[in-house]
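Section handout 9: paired folding examples.
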Amino acid sequence: MASNRQSAPDHQKPKKAYAAAGVDVDLGNRIKSGIHALVKGTHGPEVLGKIGGFGGLFRANFKGMKDPVLVSSVDGVGTKLKLAFAADRHDTVGQDLVNHCVNDIAVVGARPLFFLDYIGAERLDPPVFAQLIKGFAKACKEAGCALIGGETAQMPGMYQRGEYDLAGTIVGVVDRALALDGSRIRVGDVIIGLAANGLHTNGYSLARKVLFEQMGLKVSSKLPGVAKTLGDELLRVHKNYQPLLAKLPKGMVKGLAHITGGGLIDNLPRVLPKKTDAVIDTKSWKVPAIYDHIREGGSINRTEMYQVFNMGIGMTVVVSAAHREKALQLTKGRVIGRIEKGSGVVRLSF
């Protein structure tokens, strides 16, 4: 016998058990249904299939390479996310994640092929999710890198309400003969520094402790010598150096170091031969005012600042003295140091 009972409106339907436990599968499906439109601008003919499958498909074309080598890296954004939560702005951290990963493979001479993201959240917030994906897509398009997939996880109890975590994986390629490892660095070479765009993605735990806890500032605060509000200053986008580095003539660059966690002190030794030191003249560039506020506000040792923050230098390029002027012209950087005999460490000159 047919029933004349009418279906209840959506807002009156009983909540599904999984949604009541904090994981709304239907919400996740609705949010993710619009991803393809956001990321298709990053896809070239190499990308096969579509977003939403069990795996991203990328048909590699290594034409012109004699011995192609895949290069991969994975990273996160760290506690810079706390600034995104406080400012309720989420597109910039999406760009940060992509650009950080691109730089990490650029230092070995690789160009990016494709990127995958991971978003773990207490609960999916559609506007926030859209901002994150837009940030990923914008950075990937600018980097010539396909955004081919990712994972979005709702995990109640794992995160505080309104918070999320990000991670990204990148795969690139370099011709083995052109891969950079610092082995050609010699005494007498010069170190060129390329300007950073703010703190990038490192040192935020210390910066937040000093600026917000010890100094009592807010994201809306203004500081002397800092043009933006504190929130906008700390959310500056991590710069992508790969397009610039790719334009340098083959053979000119002997070594590259991405200045991330560990600063100049810990990152340059990763490409130094064991019997050389990198001597850095800290007076050769003007350190942005934000670092002075952090150092003074937290009474932090000057040397430690160069081990926590990039101090205004986001990438270092080591070239021979003979290539100094040409490299400066092409990179618009500045000489910040030199290679001397030593034991594979960085020595700071104040």
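Moving on to protein 2 of 2.
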Amino acid sequence: MLLCVTASHKTASFDMLERLSRTPDDVAPNLLRIASCVQGAVVLSTCNRFEAYVEVDEPVTAAGAVGVEAVLEAIEQSTGIPASELDGAYAVHSGRRVAEHLFAVASGLESVVPGEGEIAGQVRRALKTAHDEGTTSPELERLFQRASQAQRKVKNVTAIGRAGRSLVRLSLELADSRIADWSAERVLLVGTGAYAAVTLATLRERGATNIAVYSPSGRAELFAKKHGIAAVGDHEYTRVATGSTLLITCTNAAEEPVLRPEHLQASAGGTAGGCPIGASSASSQLVIDLGMPRNVDPAVATIEGVALLDLDTIRLHAPLEELQATDAARSVVREAADTFNVVGDRQSVTPAVVAFRTHIFGLLEDEIDRARRRGDEKGLVEQAMRHLAGVLLHTPTVRAHELAADGRASDFTDALETLYGLTPDAGESDEAATA
């Protein structure tokens, strides 16, 4: 059985999501170690959500409850957050609902800004991480691969990409009301990852030219050279930060805030980028924090003349969904999820169909041997018996797949055990089922 435990911007505070995102890499290995019934785990951790996708051994009594408990215990071991603190901050999806949820997440339908594209890459990386760590399972790999396929189809056949905007673009649109001339802004970008590259491109689209970059991990020089901007070293970070009119932070290289009040409160009389340091430079500063964990100490907002725009604020200003595009996208997601579940259900009933057909063909071969010993020289009896066996097998086989498509594969398996005393072997091949 598939299970998803999800904490997102819809269920949890950004403070909680920030705490969950600090050590996500340990959760999946801990899950497999904690509960023997967990066959695989993939953890998806972004700035707006923390999700654990788990495959639980179906025969376990109350498998769903056991899986959720294991997830919460693994989170506590990895992050130090007690399960009691997570009450009300997460939701659970199980069975057939898991595919539709992940497909919607991968397509950007569950993001702060509907249709944002960054999540698709994060979903792919979550699977790769699990695969590299050996924590995934064949069914989870199929789930995440189909999620990427669904996302591409949503992107290709709907307008959802135009309905939503990335967090970067939205944050700069919110900044428009404070900025009259982007070319006059002195911009400091803190971070050199994927978000930083997107941010830089979006700033240039708006006309910003005076841009510098600082990296807590020491990658500023390489990033600056690649993109043709100025690099800021540790020794000049405070000076440039104080003199910048727009600061955008988007780094995951540090667990502690990389921008604190002391970085914007330099001694009077200094200079920063040719401008006096002090009240005159700080009086028009805008700080945009796109980091998770948050990169900016909230106390920065208490400095006179400094405005802080963080993910909480950006979420409140996310645009209304364009209903037509979103409805079309959700239709694609539901169809893809239905297909995923039908294929999975058919695969789940395959061992039972194989066991049934093997049993019938075994009886058939015994009877054919008897007929040959009694003198069926022309094989007429054998031919008739094989035809009859095919006719008798057809309806139960079709019915098994129909039950599987309705999510009732266990009905066929139970009937098989009751009538024939057969216990399906999960190791039987799909090919045998259609022999």
